[in-house]
């Protein structure tokens, strides 16, 4: 017959075995949940990207509300900073489509027309802040020396400049919507303030200027890109904080490229002045020598005449 200690030991061992089995089952369920969730997210993300690609490849003007819903779903699976070339291409097409939609006077075709829908206006504003910040963040990740990088840079800067100024919003140039122009101007300033404060636009513009201007002896940025960058950085309200950021981040980036040529030009000017100064010294001493020789010659002739007399 088993003793009391043996019965207690067997009971504890059975309890530990049951607890270990429960822990193993919970761990297996957790692993399966993570794997299945990951696979489902991949499948849903692929479907969302394919749906957006179909809408971006359509030739006719898109319905702004349907495009807005597709882009919002895409943002739920898209990270703010993308490091894959396919995502760069997708964001490039998206920026071009959104910029071209602003030329439509019909609010159903223009992307800013979603702001006229009271059911979506608040979510559209936060969505636009996030989307413009995504464009801004990814500018710092591209290589401006490549042709593909130049293409992405032009698209994203075009979208940033278009959505931060209402002059490109054709919808609000119509008489029935002209009364909303002032409110839309404040909205575009809100986008610009978000870019400068939360998206670090000034620092990003400085980094792209240094990448494009400070490497090698030639500029890798097109004139249109430089104009877009300078338009963006000078567009916010001229406060003391903005002016200091403009000087520190943007103007320093452009001046960095010019300083080398300025220094070289100054060196050439300095050496040119030095050679000119040395030439003037030689001329002066040559004139002095000639004058001394003439004086000595005249004095010698004068003494010769006196001695003869």
Describe the protein:
The protein is built from 9 helices and no strands. It has helices spanning 4-56, 64-77, 85-101, 121-139, 147-163, 181-197, 201-213, 223-233, 240-308. Helix 1 packs antiparallel against helix 2, helix 5 packs parallel to helix 8 and helix 7 crosses helix 9. Mean pLDDT is 78; it is low at 238-243 and 245-271.
State the main characteristics.
single chain; 309 residues; 9 helices
* Helical content band: over 70%
State the end-to-end CA separation.
166 Å
What is the helix tally?
9
Major sheet size, sense and barrel closure: none
Radius of gyration: 37 Å
Class by SSE composition: mainly alpha
From the spread of the alpha carbons, the general shape counts as extended
SSE order, one letter for each helix or strand: HHHHHHHHH
Number of DSSP-assigned strands: 0
Unreliable spans are: 238-243, 245-271
**Average pLDDT for all residues:** 78
**Strand composition percent:** under 5%
Topology at a glance:
Elements lengths: L3 H53 L7 H14 L7 H17 L19 H19 L7 H17 L17 H17 L3 H13 L9 H11 L6 H69 L1
Would you kindly provide a brief summary of this structure?
This protein has 309 residues and is mainly α.
């Amino acid at each position: 017959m088993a003793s009391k200690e043996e019965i207690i030991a067997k009971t504890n061992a059975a309890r530990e075995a049951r607890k270990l089995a429960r822990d193993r089952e919970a761990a297996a369920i957790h692993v399966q949940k993570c794997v299945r969730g990951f696979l489902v997210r991949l499948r849903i993300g692929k479907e969302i990207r394919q749906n957006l690609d179909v809408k971006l490849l359509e030739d006719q003007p898109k319905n702004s509300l349907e495009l807005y819903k597709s882009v919002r779903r895409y943002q739920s699976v898209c990270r703010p900073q993308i490091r894959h070339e396919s995502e760069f291409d997708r964001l490039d097409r998206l920026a071009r489509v959104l910029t071209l939609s602003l030329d439509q006077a019909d609010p159903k075709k223009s992307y800013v027309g979603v702001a006229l829908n009271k059911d979506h206006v608040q979510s559209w504003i936060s969505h636009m802040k996030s989307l413009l910040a995504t464009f801004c963040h990814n500018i710092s990740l591209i290589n401006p020396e490549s042709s593909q990088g130049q293409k992405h840079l032009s698209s994203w800067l075009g979208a940033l400049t278009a959505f931060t100024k209402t002059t490109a919003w054709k919808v609000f140039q119509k008489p029935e919507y002209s009364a909303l122009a002032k409110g839309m101007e404040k909205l575009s300033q809100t986008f610009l303030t978000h870019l400068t404060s939360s998206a670090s636009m000034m620092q990003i513009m400085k980094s792209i200027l240094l990448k494009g201007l400070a490497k090698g002896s030639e500029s890798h940025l097109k004139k249109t890109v430089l104009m877009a960058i300078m338009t963006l950085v000078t567009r916010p309200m001229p406060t003391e904080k903005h002016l200091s950021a403009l000087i520190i981040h943007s103007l320093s980036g452009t001046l960095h490229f010019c300083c080398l040529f300025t220094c070289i030009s100054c060196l050439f000017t300095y050496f040119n002045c030095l050679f000119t100064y040395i030439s003037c010294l030689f001329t002066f001493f040559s004139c002095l020598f000639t004058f001394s020789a003439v004086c000595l010659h005249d004095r010698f002739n004068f003494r010769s005449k006196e001695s003869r007399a």
